[in-house]
């Protein structure tokens, strides 16, 4: 084993995201170590409620005074997750001044009063990471700042607030009124008891301010952004939008307008083929248009404990890598072993051309059931051709049995040619986490 | 002005991507310098056809022998863009051994014979960047490797080949046969004269091999990947898929299957709500599912001179940043200035509730035309309510005139309440490049 570089983290704020960071390191710390040679340790956790920290993170040192973290010479990275202006601003400024790297999810602070912080980070004594401030688990800050670094960025835009996107999705899919969709969002934890900050567009405003700063390398005055929320959108509008081939989304938009900028947040009609039009529920998405890349869009969970913790960890690793971790290519833990194709479990689409005579579907279904393959749906249409297409969608089955069945089906006299088989890939938006 | 860190690049291969890198630096080199303090200079270009290099890059030093670039002590970064196994492999191995950083777009080499290269890059003497090998202008390697570094990755999948996605899109949208769609793709330059490598899925195979290596940190044997192309897909299948609510896409898929992996390329039925189902034409997209983030997807141009050059430059900047460029936050060039909201040009959706009597549409249309706003479409339905909704979609107009018109319309006696106005954001997939 190579010697690990230790990163000593001081974590300030142990709410949703802070406890997520702790959970992530408990769960995936060893994977991160294998990938990066970094041993990321939470040395001290600061929270006013020390009892809740001790309950969730029994091994960690706990303090209630953030100054103890900034004063600790062993802590090299301060993670600020308390949000708001005060004392978050003091924490970040004092940490950077002390030469400590800072990782924060604080969009309000960076959007409204970020200039002093950015200036301090730019002097190079310590680094500032804020991937978690926009788009939760979507690595959109890095994509814009590093991925598109060679581009003149023409525009940035995005669905930057999960609460409003959830509400608009419910209005669209279930024809709910705004009020009913908001109540539903509150019941499911996607909206706060006082939802003003989200539904009036202020949260999206903070995020488009930050994206615009990166895209255009200009200081942005948050107060110069036109912000309009979704409270005036009626069910009528959702219906008419659909009828005309559009969807209504709350977008943050930053665009070049000659030498000036046009930055705003408002409900927007998007043609259904727009990459942002199909972003549903609490998901976020951004679209950056570079002069070299054309449109690049990213989509994922824009909030929540685990996705946002993932962004925090990504920043810690990036910053630590700069400070000495060699930039290796890919670290391998041995050779892969593979499952045999026959072991795969999938649903299948099958198209087979058969004579148009009675009993054929029964024979084919019999072959399938002999291999424990059950049929989900069938399409067979009337036709005056000698051979008619029979289309079957199966339930999940192993490939081995499926292909044996197909060989038997192909051998029937009444089948013309060979069956076409296409595997089905379903979409589970919940991800694969089973914590 | 701060002192710039000079990066001396040796560019090997001046085809589509190589000339794109030269073009990008000519065009955006000063933006990159402002953002990063890096002065990226192409010191020497190597190509067998020295005449075409001199025609396009009149100022550069040109050689036809790659060994001259590897032997040049002033060159710190070698960009390999000739593709294929030989001599690309020798170029990369000799460059890394000489302590030179390497940036490459060579997916075939990395997928089939990458182990020796990755091992050499991992010893830390020099860095290897290969963002351009997968997904063109989409920063998907960085998103997976850095953005999701804190995740146990459950699966990676993607539409990794633009040629086949273009063909499947034409089959889907215009009911073309495979053969006709292929001819169309060839005529438009999206398919090679010999399209075997793309349509049989080998190119997608190389890319899913590379993504799987990063996701699972396992050495992948390219020959162990099951690969099936799109040549057996008929128009029938496209139609039945649509009827059942699916789209057919050629996917590269890498998944965990217990302790083993399941890696494959084949045509796949995707439910229309799957994030990859709506990726059209020559666009590429990937979806990574991390245990912390859930699904994260990225979408953009997967090939072409400018997008791929953007990825090469991103790698050069990342690698140079590691070697000393301070990790600043955002570099600002002054304060932004803003256009006034009224100056914005947009199409608008307007809903207004009016009495149901003759001449009302004419009066409203008259107000709009007085502000040079022309109507694209109108929806007004029969109703037995006293006030009926009138929905108007306008052509592009300035916001100032639109809002003046709306104030006049709201003042009509026959109008109930205030009109609802929603701006339209169109989608131009060609991006904003006007080179």
Describe the structure in your own words.
Two copies of one chain form a homodimer. Chain A contains 15 helices and 17 strands. In chain A, the strands form three sheets. A six-stranded parallel beta sheet of chain A has the order 3-2-1-4-5-6, with helices on both faces. A six-stranded mixed beta sheet of chain A has the order 8-10-9-7-11-12. In chain A, helix 5 crosses helix 11, helix 8 (162-174) packs across helix 9 and helix 14 (360-370) packs antiparallel against helix 15. The first copy, chain A, folds into three domains: 5-133, Rossmann fold (3-Layer(aba) Sandwich), CATH 3.40.50.720; 140-299, Dihydrodipicolinate Reductase, domain 2, CATH 3.30.360.10; 341-424, Alpha-Beta Plaits, CATH 3.30.70.260. The mean pLDDT of chain A is 92. Chain A has helices spanning 16-36, 50-56, 66-71, 88-97, 107-113, 115-122, 140-147, 162-174, 178-187, 196-199, 202-216, 235-243, 305-322, 360-370, 399-411; strands spanning 5-12, 38-46, 61-63, 77-80, 101-104, 128-129, 153-159, 226-227, 246-257, 260-271, 283-290, 294-301, 345-355, 375-380, 387-394, 397-398, 415-424. With 435 residues, chain A is an alpha/beta fold. The interface between A and B is large, with 141 and 140 residues. Strand 17 of chain A pairs parallel with strand 10 of chain B.
């Amino acid at each position: 084993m190579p010697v690990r570089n230790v990163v000593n983290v001081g974590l300030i704020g142990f709410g949703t995201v802070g406890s997520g960071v702790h959970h992530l390191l408990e769960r995936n710390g060893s994977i991160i170590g294998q990938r990066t040679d970094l041993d990321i340790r939470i040395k001290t956790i600061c929270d006013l409620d020390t009892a809740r920290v001790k309950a969730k993170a029994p091994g960690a040192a706990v303090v209630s005074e953030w100054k103890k973290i900034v004063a600790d010479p062993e802590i090299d990275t301060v993670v600020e997750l308390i949000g708001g202006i005060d004392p978050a601003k003091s924490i970040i400024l004092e940490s950077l001044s002390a030469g400590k790297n800072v990782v924060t999810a604080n969009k309000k602070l960076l959007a409204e009063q970020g200039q002093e912080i950015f200036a301090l980070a730019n002097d190079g004594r310590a680094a500032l990471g804020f991937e978690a401030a926009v788009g939760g688990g979507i690595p959109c800050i890095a994509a814009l700042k590093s991925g598109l670094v060679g581009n003149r960025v023409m525009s940035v835009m995005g669905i930057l607030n999960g609460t409003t996107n959830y509400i608009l999705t419910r209005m669209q899919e279930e024809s709910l009124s705004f009020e009913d969709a908001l109540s539903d969002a509150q019941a499911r934890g996607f909206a706060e008891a006082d939802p003003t900050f989200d539904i009036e567009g202020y949260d999206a405003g903070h995020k488009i301010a930050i994206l615009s700063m990166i895209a255009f390398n200009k200081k942005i005055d948050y107060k110069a952004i036109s912000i309009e929320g979704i409270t005036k959108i009626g069910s009528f509008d959702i219906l008419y939008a659909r009828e005309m081939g559009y969807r209504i989304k709350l977008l943050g938009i930053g665009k070049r307008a000659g030498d000036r900028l046009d930055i705003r947040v408002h409900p927007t009609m998007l043609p259904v083929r727009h990459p942002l039009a199909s972003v549903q529920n609490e998901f976020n998405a951004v679209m950056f248009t570079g002069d070299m890349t054309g449109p690049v869009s990213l989509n994922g969970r824009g909030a929540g404990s685990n996705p946002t913790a993932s962004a925090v960890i990504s920043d810690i690793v990036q910053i630590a890598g700069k400070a000495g971790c060699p930039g290796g290519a890919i670290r391998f833990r041995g050779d892969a072993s593979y499952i045999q194709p026959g072991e795969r479990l999938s649903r299948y689409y099958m198209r087979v051309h058969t004579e148009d005579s009675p009993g054929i579907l029964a024979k084919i279904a019999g072959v399938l059931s002999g291999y424990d393959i059950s049929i989900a749906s069938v399409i067979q249409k009337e036709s005056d051709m000698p051979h008619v297409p029979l289309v079957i969608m199966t339930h999940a089955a192993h490939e081995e049995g499926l292909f044996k069945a197909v060989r038997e089906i192909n051998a029937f006299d009444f089948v013309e040619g060979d069956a076409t088989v296409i595997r089905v890939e379903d979409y589970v938006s919940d991800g694969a986490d089973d914590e």
